[in-house]
Amino acid sequence: MLRMMCSSRALVHPNLPMSNRQSVYKTVTSGHFRTISFLKKDTWNSNMHLKSLGKEKKLIYYSNPVSSPRNYCSSQVKLNCWNCRQPLDTTPAFFCMSCKVVQPPEEGTSYFKIMNCDYTFTLDTHKLQKRYLQLQRSLHPDNFSQKSVKEQEYSESHSALVNKAYQTLLKPLSRGLYMLELEGMRIEEGTDSGADLEFLMELMEINEALDKARTPEEAKKIGQDTKRKLAVLTEEIDAALLRGELQVAKSLLAQMKYHANIEEKVKEKLSEFM
Q1: Which residues share a beta bridge with 50?
Q2: Cys-Cys with 269: which of 28, 139, 173, 219 at CB 3.0–4.6 Å?
Q3: Burial label, 137 (beta-carbon count in 10 A; 0-12, 13-18, 19+)
Q4: Sequence-ordered alpha helix ranges (H) in 171-215
């Protein structure tokens, strides 16, 4: 298998200036504060390209692993089938078009490319689900029970990878966190203090109101308000990512995480009335 590598310098990637600041947030769960800390030091990789589209700028992700010190130049990567040695026409290639044999997963391929989705926060989840079902039907290990050991192993690896990609991209929160990870940002839990007091008070009031809810209607009202807030956050995060404002997107994703937790609590509360 021949892989032609290209340096990250071959890509157009004006790096956005970013200070190594620590952003710390708190959340309120069941009336108590739970503190999480976001990445203390941002790590930047040359996998980002700002492409002008009219008056807008979009982040274009090149499918290379963030942790890799070098970037794969996808337009120059040449892969051959492990079985018949014929060139593979597509990337990622799940099957060889010549001998129809399943291929090994390609290291570093982004979940967006695996699931054939646009690199955007507001991706089409219906298209995502359709792609997931299609891949699982063709790559499920049960289809390879009579094949060689190598083919069985490849199908299992593909199936697990497709599952992980689907679950990551399906929900806005995990999708957004993954997009930040692709851009070199990781979000970790910690114990540092510091948060916006107004935001913390808002969370506390919502949690208290949910705890005091005595009817399904009261709980549903909180759930509807939370869904509207999550919808607004989704639009704001998408806009921040399109502008390349990753720190802003990270801050908004923190808020989304907390409101998503409230949404789960609403579901638990409604189950108590059943």
Answers
A1: 59
A2: 219
A3: exposed
A4: 172-182, 197-212
